[in-house]
Amino acid sequence: xxxxxxxxxxxxxxxxxxxxxxxxxxxxxxxxxxxxxxxxxxxxxxxxxxxxxxxxxxxxxxxxxxxxxxxxxxxxxxxxxxxxxxxxxxxxxxxxxxxxxxxxxxxxxxxxxxxxxxxxxxxxxxxxxxxxxxxxxxxxxxxxxxxxxxxxxxxxxxxxxxxxxxxxxxxxxxxxxxxxxxxxxxxxxxxxxxxxxxxxxxxxxxxxxxxxxxxxxxxxxxxxxxxxxxxxxxxxxxxxxxxxxxxxxxxxxxxxxxxxxxxxxxxxxxxxxxxxxxxxxxxxxxxxxxxxxxxxxxxxxxxxxxxxxxxxxxxxxxxxxxxxxxxxxxxxxxxxxxxxxxxxxxxxxxxxxxxxxxxxxxxxxxxxxxxxxxxxxxxxxxxxxxxxxxxxxxxxxxxxxxxxxxxxxxxxxxxxxxxxxxxxxxxxxxxxxxxxxxxxxxxxxxxxxxxxxxxxxxxxxxxxxxxxxxxxxxxxxxxxxxxxxxxxxxxxxxxxxxxxxxxxxxxxxxxxxxxxxxxxxxxxxxxxxxxxxxxxxxxxxxxxxxxxxxxxxxxxxxxxxxxxxxxxxxxxxxxxxxxxxxxxxxxxxxxxxxxxxxxxxxxxxxxxxxxxxxxxxxxxxxxxxxxxxxxxxxxxxxxxxxxxxxxxxxxxxxxxxxxxxxxxxxxxxxxxxxxxxxxxxxxxxxxxxxxxxxxxxxxxxxxxxxxxxxxxxxxxxxxxxxxxxxxxxxxxxxxxxxxxxxxxxxxxxxxxxxxxxxxxxxxxxxxxxxxxxxxxxxxxxxxxxxxxxxxxxxxxxxxxxxxxxxxxxxxxxxxxxxxxxxxxxxxxxxxxxxxxxxxxxxxxxxxxxxxxxxxxxxxxxxxxxxxxxxxxxxxxxxxxxxxxxxxxxxxxxxxxxxxxxxxxxxxxxxxxxxxxxxxxxxxxxxxxxxxxxxxxxxxxxxxxxxxxxxxxxxxxxxxxxxxxxxxxxxxxxxxxxxxxxxxxxxxxxxxxxxxxxxxxxxxxxxxxxxxxxxxxxxxxxxxxxxxxxxxxxxxxxxxxxxxxxxxxxxxxxxxxxxxxxxxxxxxxxxxxxxxxxxxxxxxxxxxxxxxxxxxxxxxxxxxxxxxxxxxxxxxxxxxxxxxxxxxxxxxxxxxxxxxxxxxxxxxxxxxxxxxxxxxxxxxxxxxxxxxxxxxxxxxxxxxxxxxxxxxxxxxxxxxxxxxxxxxxxxxxxxxxxxxxxxxxxxxxxxxxx
Amino acid sequence: xxxxxxxxxxxxxxxxxxxxxxxxxxxxxxxxxxxxxxxxxxxxxxxxxxxxxxxxxxxxxxxxxxxxxxxxxxxxxxxxxxxxxxxxxxxxxxxxxxxxxxxxxxxxxxxxxxxxxxxxxxxxxxxxxxxxxxxxxxxxxxxxx
Lengths: 1233, 145
Fold this sequence. Notes:
The structure holds 2 protein chains of 2 kinds. Chain A is an alpha/beta fold. Helix content of chain A is 56%, strand content 14%. By secondary structure, chain B is mostly helical. Chain B has a single domain, classed as HPT domain (Four Helix Bundle (Hemerythrin (Met), subunit A)). In chain B, helix 1 runs antiparallel to helix 6, helix 4 packs antiparallel against helix 5 and helix 5 runs antiparallel to helix 6. The longest helix of chain B is centred in the last third of the chain and has 34 residues. In chain B, 36% of the residues are buried. Chains A and B meet through helix 16 and helix 34 of A and helix 2, helix 3 and helix 4 of B. Chain A: One of its GO terms (molecular function) is phosphorelay sensor kinase activity.
């Protein structure tokens, strides 16, 4: 009924789930990087995460499987539930139907069909109620459609019930009874449902556990594996290929394979259990159905037997009553009140009371002595029963044949006779026959007489009707006998016998017609007194064996006679469709789910296989990548060596006496060679970034000093090209940040280098701000920033308010982009307050980038057009590297460019703010000499506010207060108007840019400054302000002329940077302790290394000697030691070495270790100095100890360079020495230090 | 012989040495380092090289002669030799050293022994050549060139 649609619904649901699973699987399991190309930012360290990725994918999968399991279990639970209920309700139905029938039978003459029709809707009604309960259960599970179905079912049922309502009304009388029954049924069902629910929950819990445990095991296993791998990696640091191998081992395919097998086993187990469940279900339901059938049969059979018995007894009682009637009216009345006529009439009229008897007769007990008298009285002789001479068994035949009593013989002599004197009309032919003469009747009579009860004969064929019949005999006594009377007493008291013949077949027929379901069962009645030979009393001869037989005993009141009723169904039992449906349903569901699982498992296996293949491919690719970079490193090394030769030779050539043309050729060749070397380095860098092997440092560094370094690198070139170069860092930018200084410098170097390359006039301006500064109100903004955002055109002067007065591009557009970028990241940044976004802007007034080339400017080896490289040189790889680096730092780079106006590159990178542990860096990087100028005041006279601002920035770094004036005139006015003269003398220096310089106003200004000194010589103690001229370029003659004029104290060359400023001021203000060498362009190594004390550490005597020779050539004072240990001793502060050249590979203590230790010692000593604990001699050098250590290395592979820097070395030179390289390495320390 | 001829001979000889790969750029550099302050720089360095190399070769022979070869030691020696040879520009010795180190990493005794023989051979050649070079220079000096 309601089961099959439910089943169908479940099936559909499963199909849908399956489809869903199949559809959703592939995108989820798509491997990262499966699109063929590995993302370039992929790092080695990320690799470890990838298996995790896949694993998480698998886990997701497993979760899906688990959900499937859950759904499946719920479904099975529901099926189970329903099946259980069905069984229950069927029972209930039968029970209630039986009860109803009984009740109705008792109370009403309602047709049986009607009665039977009633309970079935009731049963349905019950079911509906139960399925509502189901619905409640189901609602808890995520299958909402079930409830809907129930509603439907209810509606339908209501329709069906409507016609029944009228029936209900007619059956009002029994309603109450039925209601009570129904409630009983409910009571029964309560505990059953809770039991089922419990079973369901247990099953679900089991499934959850079985799902969780293996996944846990897997997790544990992988965890252990990973730990092992980590240990392996941490203990040894094998070469990369070995590492790769290890990774491959780590990703060994074992666990997934095992898991796959395990999964398959589980699947098989699941399917087997499903099959077993379905078989069990079938068996169980079939059993229930057959037992129900049996019970039905038994009920019916018993009922029939009882009814037969009852009816027989009723009729027997009537016969008994007749016997008493005869005894009363025939024997006790004298004369008898009954004669044949009366008897026959009476019996005829009361025949309805004995519907089953074909006739009754009364025989008198006649003793032999009274025979004659009796015969006389009646006028006939006692005749022998027509069949007496024949055999016993032929009695029935005789009864059939002898219809004519006249032909019968008189009975022979006997002790007793029992001649029939009265008989019903139907059997009047037996009057005068002696019942004692038949053996059967004789026994019967004797038994009846002695027992005083009705006695039955064995069945025989009745006369006329030709039906089988039995004769019931009652003895009639002449007086009331006590119940415990002996047989003799009874025999003596006997006066006659009343017999009644029963027509059994018609009896049974009638009975069966009264009962319903006559069609369904076959009834046979047997006399089983003789156990070996049953005598059939009713029923068909041919018995179709339909399996079930029910035997009910029938008691007809004669203890001697035994009767049985055999009932069997007419038809064989129909196939148990319910059971078949349920079990097939379960089987189908199991198979379907199994199919889903199998598909899933296959998919998992396939994904795992793919994953493994991909990992293999990945490792292959990585190996290839490693090989590629190794190849690159080797090749570059191989190229470098001969190139060094070429360059060295060229250098030597240039040192010789050459004419101008030759010199030009040599210089060009040298420059090209150097370009080639730098290109190789860049390619190496690019390769490294692309292979993701570039790892960023996270060290605290001073951003401003990094910029100073960049400036110093380019100051030469910018001066040559007469380009103004300036650096400005906003006050808001923290002094020390954490990041990768080398890479940061590289980016800026690339950008500035690029700008310098393409700029012929104007300026290059590097400004650094925080990204936040751009977002705040313009009024609060930094001056420089304001100018950059809103460039003001000074129309009157026909120039722009930029660094050099040349127009620059409007970079506002680009800033807007960045604002968006930083805006979206804003929340993130405020959360992590420790990071700052540093915005660097490199602005130039160069040739700009053509619009059509702007979108490919960051592609490697792409320049605006091929002619560019011919004109300006370079490969165009620098920008690409910069972009990669910025991306690597999680920053963003962009540019705005306009042809013939210039370009502005800006990038933003996040750096970590530095905590307290950065004091070290500050100490190391900030020059202590800065303190010397703390608190001084300066006046800057410059007409370009940005340039003035830049100057101010540099002076502020030295702690100098700065006032600004637009021109000399305004400065004069300002000075003369100041109320106190001390105001003037407060200035330690006046910086005047060459642009605003003109002799006249300068002279006036000079006078104004010097006047107070001349007037009051008492104040001579206070130094007059020094006047410096700021300029980008100046030719020597002009310089001398200016100096001779005496108007200025000195000329300060732009670009400004800290070290230059310090040196310059020290010299100019005359309070410098240290003699600073030529502040500009130390022409060669000779001057740079002259008189420097240098320690050379090398274990190889030859190398040592060569290094010594090389350094001595540049007039350095060289000391040699042969081990790291010795170097350590030599460099124990205080010492007087200016630098140390250290070999890396040495027995005992290698260069790295020695450097590390030296740095540790230096830090300790510095700490002591800071705390004032150290003795005075420790102050040999002001500003703490930090000996420059330069590594000497044979192979110039980048990795070892990085290692050098990491362990505290300052630079490296390749062995054997090359002059240029040596120079560039040493210059950093001896020039700016 | 007069100095000019000797000088020409010296130049040819040096060129030959370079061409045949006995010496490389580094030797030039060494010669560059020699000046008035260091008149015997090259000879000094090269004789240092000879001493060092002979010591190392002996050490190597000893080390490889043992039952259990200490490859670390051998490697260190070869590294030293490689460093010194590259410093004076004895290119061929240096190359053999590289091969030697590879064998050493593989722990291949036979390869090592073969390399040692080769090293000795190369060393002997370079020594003779350099000595010849120096004697030529001496002669030039003696001849007043």
